């Protein structure tokens, strides 16, 4: 059991949250959500003991072990993969080092023998003799070979290091696991394995994530940081989001009778209680949801952007034809004889093991790169808007204000017109006069979306558009692309985003492509 009591965090005159009181129990998974800057990662650091709160306390049972997902991917360069993973259980690794040092001594004394015996007993109690096989099992679960166990961390790539640090956090049967964005940088198969691991995990899991599908799959509770408060709600993210939206609508409609409100909420709760068959936690979730009281449902102060794309003209029959495109980058063949035809009403998600492959394909069809082989042709009625994975070139003049930056791309340069698009993306009042050099990654993405909404294009090409966005902005963009009547070609790591937007999946493989007219979940079942 982990507990926070009267927890508050302030930085100068700014208070992130105050008087937080929550008991985190075993067998539950808690998803921490909140707008960017609300204090999600700060709360995790406080729970991990890496940061002191302004007021209040964090307590846990003395015999419980906590494991934390480390964020520094280069902190273990001088260690082997096995040692790095075993370090997830600090005491086990400490004993291992002590044992090695003792047995390496030339003048092994009787006292050393007694100490070695004691260490061996504790080592066995901590299941140390199975540490190698346990580490190998975690590696395999995340799609890595156990041949890596005795490799140096410094010899591995970034993606491998991300997975190994995740193995470290999961190693050795901890009682409490703290995870900050655990799905970042790992493939879909690994995410699915992690979901299953956490669903089966008997201890306490506390996670921060922007992946809605992941939060829905693993969370039994949502910890919402809003209004400067920390509140606990039963249910997963989908339940929290839908109930918060329902509450907001009811608050706006004050003339609605209380009895009608209660009836609608009870119907809503019943629907979710009876429809939680996505995981093995279904029964426990249903019991939790049945205990919800109306007043326990959330109301949120968050502001959601509004994303909407309108076409100036309908596209004709010919959209895009790609024939035999191949491209090698830095000695790696990313595209191999890629051919496909885009049809009207297509919303295509491009996926693959190598994230660079869709990026290179998009850059080719948008005229930024030449293919080594093959051709492509856009239809004469097509107008395109492009969202690149790297938008730095668009913000090279850092002295421009947001308003002046958007003006570069506008047909109507009046301030009222420009503000109408910036306001949709939550840039209001004096914010539009901020220089673009001070913008965060998420703010730059929202600027790029404002720019795209002005164009009236009938084809959108978007490379990882959810990167840097908070949950509110991801949801708004998700809804905007669902409603868009034109064609979308995109890549994205967000499972929920791909599932709800795409009606066609093209997987880029070393041998070419695999092309299916179906949803993402249907595609995963096929392959």
Average pLDDT, rounded to a whole number, is 90
**In whole angstroms, how far apart are the ends?**
41 Å
Indicate the proportion of strand residues. 15-25%
Strand order of the largest sheet: 5-6-7-3-8-9
For this structure, the CATH topology of the largest domain is: Rossmann fold
- The number of domains is 3
CATH architecture of the largest domain: 3-Layer(aba) Sandwich
How many helix segments? Answer: 18
- Helix share bin: 25-40%
Radius of gyration: 26 Å
| Oligomeric category | single chain
CATH class of the largest domain: Alpha Beta
Describe this structure in words.
This protein is of the alpha/beta class and 527 residues long. The chain has 3 domains: 2-64 and 211-296, P-loop containing nucleotide triphosphate hydrolases (Rossmann fold); 72-166, no CATH class; 320-526, P-loop containing nucleotide triphosphate hydrolases (Rossmann fold). 37% of the residues lie in helices and 22% in strands. It has helices at 40-47, 81-86, 90-103, 110-125, 131-141, 158-170, 188-200, 212-218, 237-252, 258-273, 282-290, 356-365, 402-407, 415-424, 441-455, 471-483, 495-501, 520-526; strands spanning 2-11, 14-24, 29-33, 55-60, 66-68, 176-180, 204-208, 221-226, 229-234, 320-329, 332-342, 347-351, 373-378, 384-387, 459-463, 487-491, 504-509, 512-516. The strands form 4 sheets. It has a 6-stranded mixed β-sheet with strand order 5-6-7-3-8-9, with helices on both faces. It has a 6-stranded mixed β-sheet with strand order 14-15-16-12-17-18, sandwiched between helices. A 3-stranded antiparallel β-sheet has the order 2-1-4, with no helix packed on it. α3 (90-103) packs antiparallel against α4 (110-125), α9 (237-252) runs antiparallel to α10 (258-273) and α10 runs antiparallel to α11.
């Amino acid at each position: 059991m982990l507990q926070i009591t009267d927890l508050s965090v302030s930085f100068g005159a700014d208070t992130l949250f105050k008087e937080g009181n929550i008991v985190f129990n075993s067998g539950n998974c808690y998803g921490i959500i909140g707008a960017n800057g609300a204090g999600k990662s700060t709360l995790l650091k406080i729970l991990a003991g890496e940061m002191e709160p302004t007021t209040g306390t964090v307590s846990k049972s003395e015999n419980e072990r906590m494991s934390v997902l480390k964020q520094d991917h280069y902190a273990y360069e001088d260690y082997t993969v096995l040692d790095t993973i075993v370090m997830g259980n600090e005491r086990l690794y400490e004993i291992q080092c002590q044992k090695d040092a003792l047995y390496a001594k030339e003048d092994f004394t009787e006292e050393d023998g007694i100490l070695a015996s004691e260490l061996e007993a504790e080592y066995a109690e901590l299941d140390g003799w199975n540490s190698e096989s346990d580490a190998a099992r975690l590696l395999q679960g995340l799609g890595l070979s156990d041949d890596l166990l005795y490799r140096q961390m410094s010899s591995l790539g970034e993606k491998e290091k991300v997975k190994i640090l995740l193995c470290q956090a999961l190693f050795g049967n901890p009682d409490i696991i703290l995870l900050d964005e655990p799905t970042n940088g790992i493939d879909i198969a690994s995410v699915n394995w992690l979901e299953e691991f956490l669903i089966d995990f008997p201890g306490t899991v506390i996670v921060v994530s922007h992946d809605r599908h992941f939060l829905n799959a693993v969370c039994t509770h949502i910890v919402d940081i809003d209004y400067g408060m920390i509140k606990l709600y039963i249910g997963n993210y989908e339940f929290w989001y839908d109930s918060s939206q329902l509450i907001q609508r009811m608050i706006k409609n004050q003339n609605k009778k209380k009895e009608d409100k209660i009836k609608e909420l009870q119907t809503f709760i019943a629907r979710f209680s009876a429809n939680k068959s996505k995981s093995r936690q279904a029964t426990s979730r249903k019991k939790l949801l049945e205990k919800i009281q109306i007043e326990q449902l959330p109301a949120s102060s968050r502001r959601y952007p509004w994303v909407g794309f309108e076409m100036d003209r309908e596209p004709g029959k010919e959209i895009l034809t790609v024939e035999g495109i191949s491209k090698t980058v830095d000695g790696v063949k990313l595209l191999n004889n890629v051919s496909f035809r885009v049809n009207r009403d297509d919303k295509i998600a491009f996926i693959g093991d190598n994230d660079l492959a869709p990026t290179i394909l998009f850059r080719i069809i948008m005229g930024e790169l030449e293919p080594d082989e093959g051709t492509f042709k856009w239809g004469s009625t097509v107008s395109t808007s492009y969202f690149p994975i790297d938008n730095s070139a668009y913000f090279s003049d850092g002295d421009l204000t947001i308003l002046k930056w958007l003006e570069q791309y506008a047909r109507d340069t009046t301030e009222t017109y420009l503000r109408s698009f910036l306001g949709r993306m939550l840039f209001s009042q004096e914010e539009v006069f901020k220089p673009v050099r001070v913008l965060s990654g998420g703010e730059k993405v929202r600027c790029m979306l404002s720019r795209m909404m002005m164009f009236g294009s009938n084809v959108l090409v978007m490379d990882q558009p959810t990167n840097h966005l908070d949950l509110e902005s991801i949801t708004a963009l998700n809804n905007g692309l669902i409603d868009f009547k034109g064609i979308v070609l995109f890549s994205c790591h967000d499972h929920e985003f791909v599932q709800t937007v795409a009606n066609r999946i093209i997987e880029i493989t070393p041998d070419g492509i695999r092309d299916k007219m179906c949803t993402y979940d249907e595609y995963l079942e096929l392959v």
